[in-house]
């Protein structure tokens, strides 16, 4: 799963409601609406600057985890992509996307966010296929 703050929160809420042994992993990729780049007009949505190094990216992960209230109790592992955006390129994750992986295979490849990003579609797939 590659995502934004809103998506972090939405997925964490779904994970808590699901109460399932399914592992949720979030991979934070480059900032879609950086405060010093392609930003929204309101600072509520664009407050993280483009990452200059891996420390900046890790700091952004910590901010988003705090804002999304993602803790060890949520049992959601959060990682960040490398500065060369390896995971983003591998999964076409920008700006955000949902995946279900099992046994080294992609079972579900969600639509490109934000418009085709859908936790309800993910939930439907899980309910009917897993």
TrEMBL record:
State the family it belongs to: Belongs to the iodothyronine deiodinase family.
- Kindly indicate whether the keyword Oxidoreductase belongs to this entry: yes
Top-rank lineage group of the source organism: Eukaryota
What is an annotated GO biological process for this record, any one?
hormone biosynthetic process
Under the heading Pfam families, the entry gives: T4_deiodinase
Instruction: State its role.
Output: Responsible for the deiodination of T4 (3,5,3',5'-tetraiodothyronine).
Keywords of the record: Oxidoreductase, Selenocysteine, Thyroid hormones biosynthesis
Question: Which Gene3D superfamilies does the UniProt entry name for this protein?
Answer: Glutaredoxin
GO terms, molecular function: thyroxine 5'-deiodinase activity
This protein's name = Iodothyronine deiodinase
The root-end lineage is: Eukaryota, Metazoa, Spiralia, Gnathifera, Rotifera
Q: Which residues form the signal peptide?
A: none
InterPro entries assigned: Iodothyronine_deiodinase
Organism, as annotated:
Adineta steineri
Q: Establish whether keyword Oxidoreductase is in the entry.
A: yes
């Amino acid at each position: 799963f590659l995502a934004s703050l809103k998506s972090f929160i939405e997925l964490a809420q779904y994970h808590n409601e699901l109460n399932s042994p399914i592992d949720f992993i979030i991979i934070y990729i480059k900032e879609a609406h950086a405060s010093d780049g392609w930003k929204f007009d309101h600072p509520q949505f664009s407050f993280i600057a483009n990452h200059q190094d891996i420390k900046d990216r890790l700091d952004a992960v910590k901010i988003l985890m705090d804002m999304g209230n993602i803790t060890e109790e949520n049992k959601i592992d959060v990682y960040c992509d490398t500065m060369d955006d390896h995971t983003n390129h591998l999964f076409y994750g920008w700006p955000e996307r949902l995946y279900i992986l099992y046994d080294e295979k992609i079972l579900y490849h969600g639509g490109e966010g934000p418009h085709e990003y859908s936790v309800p579609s993910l939930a439907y797939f899980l309910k009917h296929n897993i």
